[in-house]
Amino acid sequence: MNLKTVLTVFPQYLLPHHALSVMMSKLTHCQVVWWKNAFIKLIVRLYGVNLAEARHQSLDHYRSFNEFFTRELIENARPLSADPRSIACPADGAISQLGQIEQEQIFQAKGHHYSIDALLGGNSEHSRLFTNGSFATIYLSPKDYHRLHMPVSGTLKEMIHIPGRLFSVNDTTVAAVPGLFARNERVVCLFDTEIGPMALILVGAIFVSSIETVWHGVVTPPTISAPRSWRYQDQAITLEKGAEMGRFNMGSTIIVLFGEQQMAWASELAAGTPVRLGQTVAHYL
Asked: N or C, which end of the chain has less CB nearby within 10 Å?
């Protein structure tokens, strides 16, 4: 581990992750006009945000930085493939890793794996659904669109909020912190689809002030000490392919899981590949 990595990662073990995220939430939800406009302009300039894609391009439309950060896109900015067997990318971002789940382990970075069981909060019944299945981890940077959408049509079965730390999810930290995605706070959404089970895991990170879903609203905060879950067997919450399912209030990572022999990732995808919401990233088998 080089000095840069040590200086980047080691302090994160000591930082009050949730307290810092609460502070960031207050800053990003502040409605003082000069502050939110200055914050928006800074992010646009630093990260090259494409405002031409935003449904509302005037900064005056946004009451806070967070409203800008979770902005809507213009209609058809992210078209879906007409191929009924295609699987759509759930977010703008870049592939962190993707591939097969081997011996119930998911590849995080060189030298690091974590188990499905740990990622899903220790529920062996859920873990068995994805044994020998497929996964993709997608990182959203500050320039990206931060709403999350359905890769395929699905019916919601359960949502689990799992407490944890809030390590950064940048490449340096992911490569250095063992089991990071199974240690960070996260929201697991389990769906039934026409090709079998699918999980969408919304992973929190430092300064991610909240995670929300379209059927529940804000899930986190509050910070919790033990997992909590919601079952939807008696409710018909079905979302079509491409429909919005949630959002990050500040950026983070989404992990997608499919079961064994359900689908195959597109051959051109690899760690570091930029992806856009709606593009075909896989096909049904």
From this structure: N
DSSP string for 4-48? HHHHHHHHHHHS-HHHHHHHHHHHHT---HHHHHHHHHHHHHHHT
User: Which residues form the catalytic set?
Assistant: 92, 149, 252
pLDDT tens readout for residues 69-112: 899 999 889 999 989 999 999 999 999 999 999 989 999 987 88
CA distances, 215 to each of 219, 231, 271 (Å): 10, 12, 31
- Return the amino acid letter for 163: P
Strands (E), 181-273: 186-193, 196-203, 210-213, 217-220, 228-231, 238-239, 244-249, 253-258, 263-265
Strands 112-115 and 105-109: antiparallel
Residue 267 exposed, middle or buried by CB count within 10 Å (0-12, 13-18, 19+)? exposed
Tell me the C-alpha distance between 285 and 11, whole Å: 45
Under DSSP, is residue 103 helix (H, G, I), strand (E, B) or coil? coil
User: In this predicted model, what pLDDT tens digit does every residue of 97-108 receive, in sequence order?
Assistant: 999 999 899 999
Whether the predicted pLDDT of 170 surpasses 90:
no
Q: How far apart are the first and last CA of the chain?
A: 41
